[in-house]
Each structure stands twice: as C-alpha cells, then as structure tokens.
Write a structure and sequence with these properties.
It contains 2 helices and 13 strands; from the N terminus they run ββββαβββββββαββ. The chain has about 200 residues and is mostly beta strands. The protein has a single domain (about 15-195), classed as Sandwich (Tumour Suppressor Smad4), CATH 2.60.200.20. Strands 3-1-12-11-8-9 form a 6-stranded antiparallel sheet. It has a 5-stranded mixed sheet with strand order 5-4-6-7-10. The chain has a two-stranded antiparallel sheet with strand order 2-13. Strand 8 and strand 9 form a beta hairpin. The two termini are about 30 Å apart. The relative contact order is 0.25.
Amino acid sequence: MGRKSIPSNSSICDDGVLFILTRISLSRGYGTDQRVRVRINSDVNQPYWTREVILLNNPGRKYTIGSGNDLENLDPEKYGQFLIFRNKADVAEEHCQIECDENGTFWLYSLGSANTFLNGKLIPDSPVMLKFGDIFHFSHIISQLWDSALIHLTKTGYRKRLYRMNKLGEEYAVFKFDKKPTNSYENKQPGQTFYQFSRLSKILN
C-alpha cells in the first residue's frame, strides 16, 4: 500500500460510528440494526446521516471503503472490514481506509491515486487524524474555494447542499465520522421519532 507510518503522539478515543449521507425511503422495511432519527411530520425524502458501521476502538482494526469489484482477491489482513459502495459515484475499487492505532486514535488514509477530501480540503499526505464530527468525501462539492465553508455550514445542520447525484443518477458518497452514542433511544430529543431500517447486505443501493 506504500504509506507513511502513524505518528506516535496520538490520544485515546472512544468507539466511533461512520455515517453516510443518503435519502431515506419508508418502503425499505423495518429492522433493528439501523436507526434513523427523523422529525415527526418532516419530509423523509430529505437527506439524512444514516449509520453505516460502528468503528471499534481496537488497536490495528481496519475499515476499507471502496467499490470492491475484485473483493475475492483482496487480502482481509491488509484491508480489514471492507465496506462496499458499488453504485456510488467516484468511488475507487480501494479508495480509503480508516485504521485505529495502538493508542486508540483513528486515522484516515487515502489509497493509491484516489482523491479523498476531509472537511472540504484535499488530503495531500496520508494519514490524517480523524476527529468526531469530521466529514469526508471523494470529489469537490462546489469548488476548492467553497467546499470547506460548506462543510462548516453542514456541521451546524445544513445538509441539503452536500447531497448530490451525477447524470447517471448515482449518489456521491459523503461520510461523517462521529462518536458512538451510548444509547440511541436515550438520546432521542422531544418531538422526534425513530424509523428503523434493516440492512440486509453491506452492498448499498
């Protein structure tokens, strides 16, 4: 993979959660492994952060994001848990990887020649430390000048502009790394309800 080693001045952190920005449809059915917080009487077709995977704070644990077109030939020791996004726009076969170091800090690697943007800025040199609330994606949202400002607005609640589709109708993948909640139902705010959706496969729409 040919990449730099993780710096040693990292600090302990909790388990993380990887969310993906998508539109929710109630027709997907009900389940227990996916909870989406939606305001009562809100438009469920608006984009929401939906939970993709829990990132365990275990030293050496790896999570690789890519299209996984050649998954049978991928080395599980090298790539760890592979998260497949086969029909998302601008996702390379092996695009990026999140790894937890011996001190419990998560790091983001951009693999090969694939572009990865963290909080609106292109990652020039891997790895970079992931902090709770960080947003990463694989292509410019507006432009190099405005993307970081847009990410700032997104962190205050504005999500619509982050959700995009290409001419083929493929969604651009936008992810958020955040802290794992202790209990989703305990954190429910007044005036909100939970719709639960089952994920039958790691392969997204």
